[in-house]
Amino acid sequence: MPDANEPLLDAAQAAFIQSGVGLGIAASSADAVPVHVRAIGCKVAPDRGEVTVFVSSTQAAPLLECMGEECILAAVFTHPASHRTLQLKGRRSRVAPCTPEDLRIVEAYRDAFCAILVPLGFDEKLIRTLLACAPADIVGISLVPTEAYSQTPGPKAGERLGRSA
User: Whole-angstrom Cα distance, residue 49 to residue 15?
Assistant: First the structure.
């Protein structure tokens, strides 16, 4: 039987979501209106029990307003070339300003995302503009994943991923 204390993400999944893939995070308002924002970086805690996505607090203002005790967050991680996609959902969340180490993660993410998209024909200047954000505007939204799904197009799309036995 799976151990409830075991992290939901395995090491390969944690590496994937930190690899420069496309990132987004969403919630819904009290009126059930969905809100979504592109994220600009991600880190996974060493124990893989918490995931933090970095966003522009200005761009994410509607999402940040939705966050509260009953807020369910969904984070989506997609590799643009293969469309491999992992979705995480979590209820316990918090928002925190970025540390200098977090800002290094965001900068490395920009480089990694460019490395994926430029060979697909996207202009690097466009990508960097899309991800541009003043360091003081960046916040981390941390969530404890309680559900994980494969959202890669194909026969297993929507399949729930679980803790290993």
Answer: 14
